[in-house]
Write a structure and sequence with these properties.
The chain is built from three helices and no strands. It has helices spanning 2-34, 36-42, 45-87. Helix 1 packs antiparallel against helix 3 (45-87).
Amino acid sequence: MVVSETVSVRIIPAKKAWNLRVEKRVSATSAMLGQMKGIKAMGLAPAFFNRIQGLRHIEIKKSQRYRIFMISLHILGMYALVLRKFYRLPLLRF
């Protein structure tokens, strides 16, 4: 219970950091799509594509911490179920 509480508290900042990167990438993509005609006319499409791809890679890196915490919570939940069955402990209901 203590371990899952510790992990849960750390999920919030990790998710916020990931969401900020998602918002940054989406706003950059939206701005690019709004100016697509001019971007293509100037031949800057490949540069903008690379910029959006770079933002996506940063976003994925930021999401890793959040995903690790979520996996940890799922593992802890499954571990508790296995222990309960192994030791034939009653299910606690709050």
